[in-house]
Amino acid sequence: MPLTSDDLQTLLQEAQARTEAVVALTERICAVAAPTGEERTRAEFVASLWRERGYAPEIDDVGNVYVRRGNRPDVPVVMLLSHTDTVFPASTPLKIERRGTILHGPGIGDNSVSNATVLTAFDVLDALGMQTKVDLVAVANVGEEGLGNLRGARAAVERYRDQLGAVLVIDGRLGSIVNVAVGSRRWRIVVKGPGGHSFGSFGTPSAIHGLGRIIASLADISVPQEPRTTFNVGMIEGGTSINTIAPRASALLDMRSVSVPALDALTKQARERIQRSVGPGLEVEIEVLGERPAGSRPIQDPLVQKAIEVVRWLQMEPRLVASSTDANIPISLDIPAVCVGVTFGEKAHTTEEYIHIEPIAKGLAQVLRLCLDTGEMVARR
């Protein structure tokens, strides 16, 4: 049965009452380093938090933590994904500080508060004795940031592929609903040459010069504004000294689009320019570092409409956005999915990152209602 007005009021009250619990969990989770590819310590910590609540978490081979609420193998599941990894090296000081209604810390909003919110949402449902029409599977997943290539989301979706009714990704900004997955392809371009002394071997082709020609050629690529398509050379390295003709140079190239055909066209252009621009006497290789699939759920999609309804229930104006998140995986597989956030913050991906505490109550209420309403929706299909 749909939630009654009394049910909805109870969810709001419980969410408000649990705000400090979310904050406390957020601080504890954020204090455990979790660089992409090194999430194991945080995974084990999150698993311990689930055990404290009487659940039996499982950590898979890639480092995802799974918890299932319900034990009905014959029904679909609604999956909640919240990534554990951060962009910060393990050596980064994790100074967490509360200043009034602001909570500071590297990775505090991206994505510690989301992990904490999912844990607390299960606490509320358990305390109220509210059952979802289908089982919930919470996944604290790895590999969302940087070159993680969404490996945690890929593994989780593959594991439950035959049972998945819908996926709720908890990440980002409260009020925003990600229904369009920005696809990306990431390459390392490596140029190699014979090298030599800058004076004695002058005229020998330089890998750095070849890489420079490639980058200049890439910069001249024309891409459409609609569908939005972008590219960027974000890092370069190479050479051994100022007076050595470089034997090796490399660059990292990021290409993105909301459209698969547009991304394919950009990829083809980039490959052609790389191969023809390097120059004689040099070799060039393209190493694929990652690929995030593109896709979208239309505004008329029932789950998108439900997310819009829930945001408006919170007396906010929803904003549909395109982004690259864990939702890329289910969306690309035509599985109903959206990505929503639980609060507002600034300076993400910097050590000065912070979030606002007060909106967390609405963020938690949003997750609670989406769990219940999405379960109802999936059960009716």
Description of the structure:
The chain has 381 residues and is an alpha+beta fold. The protein has two domains: 5-181 and 294-380, 3-Layer(aba) Sandwich (Aminopeptidase); 183-292, Alpha-Beta Plaits (2-Layer Sandwich), CATH 3.30.70. The protein is 36% helix and 26% strand. It has helices at residues 5-17, 19-30, 40-52, 108-128, 151-159, 207-219, 260-277, 302-313, 328-332, 360-380; strands at 58-59, 65-69, 77-83, 97-99, 102-104, 135-141, 164-170, 176-181, 183-192, 196-197, 229-238, 244-245, 248-257, 283-292, 295-296, 319-323, 337-340, 345-346, 354-356. The strands form four sheets. Strands 1, 2, 3, 6, 7, 8, 15, 16 and 17 form a nine-stranded mixed sheet that branches. The longest helix is centred in the first third of the chain and has 21 residues, at 108-128.
- Cα shape: elongated
Write down the CATH class of the largest domain: Alpha Beta
State the helicity in percent bands: 25-40%
Order of helices and strands: HHHEEEEEHEHEEEEHEEEHEEHEHEEEH
Distinct helical segment count: 10
* CATH-defined fold name of the largest domain: Aminopeptidase
Low-confidence stretches: none
Could you give the count of β-strands?
19
* CATH architecture assignment of the largest domain: 3-Layer(aba) Sandwich
Residue-averaged pLDDT, rounded?
Answer: 97
Tell me about the largest β-sheet: 9 strands, mixed
| Radius of gyration from CA coordinates | 23 Å
The SS-based structural class is alpha+beta
Q: What is the assigned CATH homologous superfamily of the largest domain?
A: Zn peptidases
Into how many domains do the coordinates divide? Answer: 2
Beta-strand percent range = 25-35%
The first-to-last residue Cα distance is 14 Å
